[in-house]
Amino acid sequence: MIKVENLHKHFGGFHAVDGASIEIETGSITGLIGPNGAGKSTLFNVIAGVLPPTSGRVLMDGEDITGLKPHELFHKGLLRTFQIAHEFSSMTVRENLMMVPAGQSGEGLWSAWFRRGRIAQEERALARKADEVLEFLTISHVADEKAGNLSGGQKKLLELGRTMMVDAKIVFLDEVGAGVNRTLLNTIGEAIVRLNKERGYTFCVIEHDMDFIGRLCDPVIVMAEGKVLAQGKADEIMQNEAVIEAYLGTGLKNKMKAGANA
Ligand SMILES: Nc1ncnc2c1ncn2[C@@H]1O[C@H](COP(=O)(O)OP(=O)(O)O)[C@@H](O)[C@H]1O
Ligand SMILES: [Mg+2]
């Protein structure tokens, strides 16, 4: 579905992504791991149109999508989750979801509100859709809660929920597990697997929790110093000498332990 060819992203003289080539198969949950500073988030940001690449190409189903803007990629079904913006935190969870089809596609916030007021029928359909999404994610009980009052994990579920308000094909998740307790991380994992199996979503997931990556992801791509170091099944990757080497200093074992205890 996604093919990244010899991608470079330089910040001044610093090569954050240094000739990375990856492929994400349709229907996969592909993991992306690597030590801090490996260039994972930068690679995501280039694929998702947040940053222009220095050189290289990104293809989606064979079409060159390099340098397209996030809202253009959104219309193609390529989504990157992002944190709930400050101005949305005082809106309810349901309202946050209802804003997505208009708000995230690049339409202005006010015209979206205006449209909502004028077209009551469309609004009811959106509210129904939002309620379905909340039920799917098992957070119906917080539908009328202000988004700013949610726990860290519930916010992550809401971020995932926003991808369900539109016809997403591929979703990029950057550190879904950061600051999330074990129970909610499992809920997020289950939601990802169900979206993959039941709705055909393809995922690419950056995560430090090796247990989470091991259970969900096949294949796993390892990045270090802006380059792709290895790709394979999670258990093979963990045995790979070059991968273990790349993690030395930060300590793969410590990370796995930290993941297991989180
Ligand atoms: N906007 C930027 N300007 C300068 N350097 C950046 C910028 N964004 C990221 N970097 C640097 O690029 C490297 C890779 O960062 P990042 O992609 O966030 O790594 P990861 O997500 O793997 O931890 C880091 O050394 C980081 O400091
Ligand atoms: Mg990162």
TrEMBL record:
Superkingdom of the source species: Bacteria
SUPFAM superfamilies on file: P-loop containing nucleoside triphosphate hydrolases (SSF52540)
UniProt organism field: Rhodovulum visakhapatnamense
Family annotation (PANTHER family): CONSERVED COMPONENT OF ABC TRANSPORTER FOR NATURAL AMINO ACIDS, CONSERVED COMPONENT OF ABC TRANSPORTER FOR NATURAL AMINO ACIDS-RELATED
Cellular component annotations (GO), alphabetically ordered: plasma membrane
Domain ABC transporter stretches: 2-250
GO MF term list: ATP binding; ATP hydrolysis activity
UniProtKB keywords: ATP-binding, Nucleotide-binding, Transport
CDD domains found in the cross-reference section: ABC_Mj1267_LivG_branched (cd03219)
Protein's recorded name: ABC transporter ATP-binding protein
